[in-house]
Design brief:
alpha/beta, Nucleotidyltransferase, domain 5, 3 domains, six-stranded mixed sheet, five-stranded mixed sheet
Length: 477
């Protein structure tokens, strides 16, 4: 069977999942090709387009793009670019990131090494390897200048240093593909965090209980290995005296008790710091690999809409919103926000560090609003913090995402059924909206406004839940 670079990286991440995908695809639990992954694919092609421009502009230089190499032992590679220069041959691996990544999920050096090995097994000598990525400090000013936006990083020595290891791994992957049957009891992902589990993890590890140790937030690899070595996968089996952080121990305690772990004094202290009116604020942002606007950089976010629910001391609730319908920087957005938020009162967000970062960036872009935006940050409180330490529920499954908390504490509200489901799909939808017209554009705008509005209304209802909780007789001192 043919082994491509993508399949080889799959093998490195989980050999058994790799085998199942290629040998028994009908049994493989294929996950939906997410909006986020679709965006990554598009951005890869976009960066390649600028690499092509680079070579078109360069004098006496040319590159062959997407050259295919196939070997007799089954390797298949489609090199991003190959250049014959100075009597040698350079292989280019093109990435949409702003650096060379070597983590398990995105090992760019392994990608390049596979390409080199495949090319050389066909008889094409490779003299140098260059990884092309984006310059994170590049700021667009007019038409994009590929020579300034792109970084050509020589990784020849780093690739050659892992060549023997990679050849051995390729041999192991090819040998595995020749196996007719597979032991399906467990896979290597058992030693990884939940976010790094293969798609087939549940199939290979059906006995993993729920909730399990993989629900523990920020559990170190060392701790995970200790628990696995002791045969402990169930949260209920973790000894009471096992050393964990306060957040981690809270989840274990909540699971064992079968009820939320609530610190009413901590919740009251959070609520006491707030002053009316309360401004519940959420931004949706846009970012792209190649910057689409002047004064922006690769992968740099900028707000394109906000939702703002204003809760007054008398209990009345007002809603304000803004959605930018054109491809432009958020100057009009921040101006409208300044009109919607008064000088007094707390500003409340969920995972507020994101909103604070956007305010700092907008202050840099628009100095006339810097005092207003800095003031917002000074007045900002993070509602998520309560659910890290003072209200811990096993049903959150180790997460404090608003999409995990909301259905537990406010089950009458739900994101289900919305056309826009998360930040990645909101970003994709906004890009489509500004590049279409008429009814289609209006339909997308309605979906975006509805999604962002629910984010801030969810915060209002969660806040009200906390107020009712601390006012109940069972929590009176």
């Amino acid at each position: 069977m043919r082994l491509s670079k993508t399949e080889f990286i799959h093998y490195l991440n989980c050999p058994k999942s790799f085998w199942l995908l290629l040998k028994a695809p009908n049994e493989y639990p294929h996950k939906e090709f997410s909006v986020f992954l679709q965006k990554l694919t598009r951005e890869g092609y976009e960066v390649e387009r600028y690499v092509r421009q680079f070579f078109e502009h360069a004098q006496e230089r040319s590159a062959d793009f997407q050259r295919v190499f196939e070997t007799e032992d089954g390797l298949f590679a489609r090199a991003d670019a190959i250049e014959a220069i100075n009597g040698g041959t350079v292989l280019y691996e093109i990435k949409s990131s702003t650096s060379v990544k070597v983590d398990a999920a995105h090992n760019h050096l392994k990608d390049a090494c596979f390409q080199v090995i495949c090319a050389e097994r066909t008889g094409q000598k490779i003299d140098a390897v260059s990884l092309v990525h984006l310059n994170g400090n590049y700021v667009r000013d007019g038409e994009i200048v590929p020579e300034e936006m792109l970084v050509f990083e020589d990784v020849t020595e780093r690739v050659r240093a892992i060549e023997a290891e990679t050849k051995a791994e390729i041999g192991e992957a090819l040998a595995l593909l020749r196996e007719v049957e597979l032991d399906r009891s467990g896979c290597s992902c058992i030693h990884k965090s939940r976010s790094n589990h293969c798609d087939a993890f549940a199939l290979f590890n059906p006995a993993i209980p729920k909730p399990s140790i993989y629900s523990i937030p920020r559990l170190s690899a060392k701790k995970r290995a200790e628990l696995i070595a002791s045969g402990i996968l169930d949260l209920l089996a973790i000894p009471d005296d096992y050393t964990l952080s306060a957040n981690q121990a809270g989840l274990v305690q909540a699971t064992k008790s079968g009820a939320p772990i609530v610190n009413p004094d901590g919740i009251r202290a959070f609520l006491a710091q707030l002053s009316f009116p309360l401004y519940f604020l959420d931004y949706e942002t846009f970012a792209s690999a190649a910057p689409v606007l002047d004064r922006t950089s690769p992968h740099k976010h900028f707000p394109v809409q906000y939702s703002l629910h204003v809760l007054n001391a008398d209990g009345s609730l007002n809603h304000h919103e803004y959605l930018e319908r054109e491809l432009r920087l958020p100057d009009r957005l921040v101006g409208r926000l300044g009109a919607d938020i008064g000088d007094e009162g707390s500003v409340i967000s969920w995972h507020a560090s994101f909103e604070k970062t956007q305010n700092k960036e907008m202050a840099r872009l628009f100095p006339d609003f810097s005092d207003f935006l800095a003031g917002l940050n000074d007045r900002m409180a993070d509602l998520e913090d309560v659910f890290k330490t003072d209200y811990v529920d096993a049903r959150f499954d180790g997460s404090t995402s608003i999409k995990k908390v909301l259905p537990v504490v406010c089950p009458e509200l739900s994101y289900k059924g919305l056309d826009v489901q998360d930040g990645a799909s909101a970003m994709d939808a906004w890009q489509k909206m500004v590049t279409t017209q008429g009814e289609e554009s209006n339909k997308i705008a309605t979906a975006l406004l509805g999604y962002c509005k629910l984010d801030t209304f969810a915060m209002v209802e969660i806040y009200r839940f906390l107020v009712r909780l601390t006012a109940s007789t069972s929590f009176q001192s």
